[in-house]
Design brief:
The protein has 93 residues and is an alpha+beta fold. Helices cover 33% and strands 31% of the residues.
């Protein structure tokens, strides 16, 4: 099993360009076939959150940098963090 990463992002205020790119963004993430993938937009459509597993931060960054939203310059801010999921409160032990 790989490490778990969280990709958290906010969109620029470019609704036309975003609408034109959403299907490419969705298809890109589906095509990655990542273990543990979960993702989607925030309810207010200002951005989104994607979590997935891969072997390293370098690999996770490479995947994210090929997202059509990133390639089209549609993100105002983005972050990637390795996520230590709390499995039965063992995170701090």
């Amino acid at each position: 099993m790989g490490k778990r990463f969280a990709f958290f992002y906010f969109m620029k205020k470019e609704p036309e360009k975003i609408r034109a790119t959403v299907s490419l963004h969705i298809e890109y993430w589906k095509s990655c076939s990542l273990q543990g993938y979960e993702g989607g937009p925030f309810a207010d459509k200002t951005g989104g959150l994607i979590t997935f597993e891969t072997e390293s931060i370098d690999k996770a960054t490479s995947i994210i940098m090929n997202d059509p939203f990133v390639l089209q310059g549609l993100l105002e801010n983005k972050w990637i963090k390795e996520w230590a999921v709390d499995n039965h409160n063992k995170i701090f032990t």
